[in-house]
Fold this sequence. Notes:
The chain is an alpha/beta fold. Helices cover 29% and strands 24% of the residues. The chain contains 13 helices and 17 strands. The protein has helices at 2-17, 30-46, 122-125, 162-168, 184-191, 213-222, 228-235, 309-328, 349-356, 394-403, 423-428, 443-452, 466-483, and strands at residues 49-50, 60-79, 82-84, 93-97, 101-111, 129-133, 140-142, 157-159, 173-177, 195-198, 207-211, 243-269, 283-289, 335-341, 365-370, 384-386, 433-437. The protein has a 15-stranded mixed β-sheet that branches. A two-stranded antiparallel sheet has the order 7-8. The two termini are 45 Å apart.
Amino acid sequence: RQLALIEAQLRQHVTTLASDEYGGREPGTPGETLTLRYLARQWFDIGLESGTNDPGNAWFAPVELVEREPQGSRAQFYHGRRRVAVAVAEAEFFVVTSGLRSLIENAPLVYVGRSLGGETLRTELAGRVAVIFDSEAPPLESVGTAGGKPGSAPMAARPIDRAGRLLDGGAAAVLTVLDAERSLEDVIARRRRAGYALAGERIGGDIEAFLTPAAARQLLASAGAPDLAALRQAGAAPGFSSRALGLTASLEATNRETRIKTHNLIGKLEGRRIEGKGRDEGAVVLMAHWDHFGKCAAPPAEDLICNGAVDNASGLAVVTEVARLLAAGRPLDRDVYIVATTGEELGLLGALAFAENPPLPLDKVVAAFNVDSTGLVPAGRPVSVVGQGMTPLDSGIAKVLKGMKRKLASGDAANAYAKRQDSWVLIQHDVPSVMVSTSYSDPQRLEAFMDNLYHRPSDDEAKVLYGGMVDDVLIQAEMVRHFADAKAWPSVRAK
């Protein structure tokens, strides 16, 4: 009977939060107001209190986001004092910046081959535009290691960000000649998307420019420099460092800025006072992001709203029902904070705001659990840990699962999602944080969701499987109980 009641509550939450009435739960819209009011009412009725620890902002912790969208792009090239007009047609280049407005004038162009910068090239890069070719594929770098242990196999690999490395190495800008598969149209379509950050976060003024091969050939010819093929060949030679091209550039890019006022919702289930220890035993955090994309399609499509049922009405439903179970049980030693974060889809920004302005010192958080995109599997499936091997929590998690007679999925394939969800932000702030879920133990179902439903209007309530969600509620509740027990899990945080 308890399982049926939990499933009914989960279904109510997902059906409500993923309804068209909530408009896709986009930050700063009426959908945010409906979402947070619904959750706050549920949490209050369950017996939680405000967890912001801020009398001026009970329950709703303000978060201000900055949206920056490319607006202006200008490039002029010179050979000596003569402006090279032939290659600066607007259709031949694109300039972008991470700042509000960035400008460099008369900076020399230097071809750097396959170099990634570093101290040996710092002098050659200073005040100059580093020129690279898209066809010079950068090497791969590993993203963590299996089990988080030195010497283990790489968890994943991705191409090195050459432009970022060169900018960090002192280049005034990076100009990429698009001589491979990417076209200028491809770059513009991707880079014209709005970027987001927390208000007050320092955003650099780095400049990146992109140039078509035809324009690059004309520029090089105007300066009597080697052609593209000759430069590529020279850049591939052992020991190649850099080569001045006899050209200078003035590059400018601007962004349009919009401020978005949004909120994290923070509730708290207060722990009991331990005799002789006051309230120094710390806390456990349980979190899920509430935001999604609002309208994400355009007419003539019939379905315009990204309802985000799996991602992440499901996670909100799970943490709400975990809170209900915990509130109905015996008092826990530690405080438990229930957090619904904003801006996850915009770059884990609500979690970052929580970490940078926490309601309690972060070194008091002994464990944090994120819930994101559950509801993908039926009941009875194995359990995966996103973040396995990255925190001291593994032994406690294994003990809880063993006590529940739940199977821990073998391997660490789920760690491929470690950087794509809110607990990663807390890990970066030295908070032991993981995501424990049955949904990430079934690669086929997870891949099918990513390929067909993820961030699409088709992620609606009809696609949710509630059996696995009920399992996740029971598992999360036992995890919180274990880590909120000062005897079962003494604090391992550094003092």
